Amino acid sequence: MRIGVAGAGPSSLYLLRITKNHDITAFEEDPKLGLPRHCTGLVSINGAIGLGIYRREIVIGRYSRVRIINGEDGAAVEFRLPRHSIIMLDRPGLEESLYEGVGVEFGRRVKEATRGGSLIDGEGAHGFDAAIIGEGARGRLSRALGMRGEYLFGIQGDGRGRGSGDAFPSSTDEIAVIFDRRISPSYFSWLVPLGEGEYRAGVVDEPGRVASSLNYFMKRFNIHYRRKFGGNVMVSSSGYIAAGRLAAIGDSTGLNKALTGGGILTGVLSARLLGEALNSAQDPASALRAYAKALYSAIGGTLKLYSTVASLLYLRNGIEAVLEVLDSVGGLSIEVDDYDNHAKAVAAILRRRPSLILTLLRLLPRLDLGPPTDAVKLLLNAAYAVNN
């Protein structure tokens, strides 16, 4: 089978590595791997090991706690995880570790993808038995699959910080996630220690407002960046994972962790499932259908629920409801065993603080749930996630 891939990020490089007995080529618009930088790189160590992407030399931070903070009044809930079970991967280093030196054509920008299996760049249309979209969260090529995303914009970077107070990490193994309308009324900000007084810190907001949000954030926490990077943050999406001879992997599927913005592990998992489908089937269309079914069965229902909730909170209602929830659970310290399983963390909070259900019920009448179809979609996704 001849397979063409648009993009050479971690998901695409992983696909190249595991897809055997096929002629597979990735087209990458940049001149080298790791561009552009836009990822914080936080994953669970168990997930990284399970997918075979853990390399000691590309780990630049290890963490054991996540504190979710109402930055306006200091109320917070702490999640305690097994020691150093959260790791920060160097994203360019990850890509270099996955690249086997062949199969990528650099400086080739794919402009269009078709359900018939074609990738179109400046040199014309190139037909394949299967065409794969691995462009990340841009959402340009994945429109061919009916993908429609809702986006905010994030800016982050590495640099020194000398802040203090309740909304600042209390140790080098603690990640601080801050909800504060003075920073961003649309999303959260974060401070992740890198050691020796440095942090990877960033904000997300509406594109027209994110620069001023970043300025306030920098002043509040006395952050002095030595480098900054950023890009689109997909908050919610809808569309198909595969159709005809075209499929998406990574953030192009729209199945990222919308509540945290993280997508490395889910992206690599999608690549693994696609590689397995291609390796076990000779007919490309049936392989892509099998892949879509496997991916949705594995994580799709849960991530669609996260996506719907994120759209409801961040895009439609802002973070006011989150602030009230944090006030109702402030002071809790919860043990969880998996950084990537948000549902398990929420369940642990409900067990410790059942009154949170009453808080949520009081909030519902004040929330803009959108048209009835959106409310039904939320309920259906919730039911699927609970049952799977």
TrEMBL record:
Gene3D superfamilies registered for this protein in UniProt: FAD/NAD(P)-binding domain (3.50.50.60)
Coiled coil: none
Annotated protein name in UniProt: Dehydrogenase
Source organism (scientific name): Thermocladium modestius
Organism lineage: Archaea, Thermoproteota, Thermoprotei, Thermoproteales, Thermoproteaceae
